[in-house]
TrEMBL record, chain A:
It is found in: Cell membrane. This is Carbohydrate ABC transporter permease. One of its GO terms (biological process) is transmembrane transport. Belongs to the binding-protein-dependent transport system permease family. Gene3D superfamilies: MetI-like. GO terms for cellular component: plasma membrane. Keywords: Cell membrane, Membrane, Transmembrane, Transmembrane helix, Transport. It is a multi-pass membrane protein. The chain crosses the membrane at residues 12-33, 73-100, 112-135, 141-162, 183-208, 258-278. The keyword Transport applies.
UniProtKB/TrEMBL annotation, chain B:
It is a multi-pass membrane protein. Keywords: Cell membrane, Membrane, Transmembrane, Transmembrane helix, Transport. The chain crosses the membrane at residues 12-40, 77-101, 113-133, 163-189, 210-231, 276-294. CDD domains: TM_PBP2. It is found in: Cell membrane. One of its GO terms (biological process) is transmembrane transport. GO terms for cellular component: plasma membrane. This is Sugar ABC transporter permease. Pfam families: BPD_transp_1 (PF00528). PANTHER family: BLL4140 PROTEIN.
Amino acid sequence: MKTERSTQVFNVAGYLILTLISLLCLLPFLLIISGSFTAETEILADGFKLIPNDFTLLAYKAVFSEPGQILKAYQVTILITLCGTLVGLFLTSMTGYVLSRKDFLYRNQLSFFIYFTTLFSGGLIPWYILIVRYLDLKDSYLSLVLPALVGAWNIILMKNFIKSIPESIVESAKIDGAGDFTIYRKLILPLSTPGLATIGLFMALAYWNDWFSANLFITSGDKYPLQFLLYKILASAAVLKTNIAGNLSADMKPPAETLKMAAAVVVTGPIIFLYPFVQRFFVKGLTIGAIKG
Amino acid sequence: MRRLVAELVHNRVMFLMIAPTLIFFSVFAYLPMVGIYYAFTNFSFEGGLFGSEFIGWQNFRFLVESGSLWSLTKNTVLYNLAFILLGNLLQLVCAIFLAEIPGKLFKKTTQSVMFLPYFISFVLVGAFVFNLFNSENGVINTLLQQLGLPGYDFYMHTSPWKYIIVFFSIWKGLGYGTIIYLAAIMSIGDEYYEAAKIDGANIFQRIRSITIPMLVPTFVLLILLSLGGILKGQFDLFYQIIGNNGMLFESTDIIDTYVYRSLAVNFDIGMGTAAGLYQSFFGLALVLTVNYIIRKTREDYALF
């Protein structure tokens, strides 16, 4: 079948526009990567560009010459992401399940108690003072995990997801004498794996990318999570410890600007590698609960 | 009361299951509300919650009279309007193209690439901005130099930052929104398009008379929902791009960055809490209004 002329015009426009937008989405990443492979002297003379004249691994050598700092930050981030996501997911799904049970008398009132927190809050400052002054969590790993442990939206999403599980399953388990927690653990959890996977990934992403809690609460450098370490390196506030200056010939500059770029790549790399594998879960989750939260 | 006790006993396991979450929200969401009181005090760290001097509405009066409240509100609202309107339009356009053009691999690839920025942290966005706009060796200045043009010190001018901020906000949310609109397009029945094809409608006519009218409800709904949050600023975005660069505040300071600076830079607890309370209070009023409007028109989509 011959394609109509208008369709051809439309398709060409579509390909052009989408290609252009995709390139714009990728360009900043490419610039950072190419910057990290450029020689420091070239940056200082010419500035950053898309394709460097000289390709060098020096910045990466510098980053990995004393990898302790970055490895420690990786450890912290992985730890808080794992703990926060697992505990958060447990609480979120349990709450979602209880609120979805029709024989739980106060479900509407308690749902509102949780939902109201998205409508009104005391604001950043009272929240900060509570955590630092009254809960005494300053400079503790708990301050990176606890304040973001459960979110109202995720609970609502989880509740709606569990509601789609046929009620008869719960009913028949109850007749067989199963307790409420057993029903949750043995029936609800396995049946809601797609929902758990999606919400869990969103939680993990939020913990992984969080720099703000560390900015507010963490004071000692060895407790920095990845993103905050990167932030400090970019702001030149924390100089990444390297052990490379001694090995350089006199006309070479130790990497500074390129070091920032290499640090950005090292910090973000794993997410980009994981991205193709987890992307579809996000897409699925978005289309499940996208509009009606 | 009897009913409550009976329910507590009867459903004790479920109450135990939900208890940690309720405690969490009591501590981290409701307890800080007590601290709203700071807004009415001349806060001192020695005095703490109730030992600080009570000054009534003075903090609010200062915020209004100094003009900060007006300019913060204006910036917050205008930025959000730009994010919402431009963002949604672009997402809609991308979704329509993705739904109609052939080429599975191309569509899959572009969709993945467009969704990628959603996954990275705002710190990395900060790195991008540094890499692009840095006045000594940023990419843009390198380019200007190569073209024989004079360099441009972005950090000495306020005007370009509006566009930079809007660009990166849309850049980061494009893939996410496109997926939502694409899902909405996919749920439109094929029979409409088939019928239109038989009647000889070309692709532009089909999009204008089927896709767009069918998407209007989703579009309006998403816009309305976002309008409810128009006083909430994207702190991460503004802070990672602008930071504490006072030169640029005039056109880039939003309520959230102001509150943050009151806490972390100026130690002006009373004033910051007052600005935060103003934001929370009017935010609530806005959501209630928006919800009222949605309830009047499309009840099933109301938030509550």
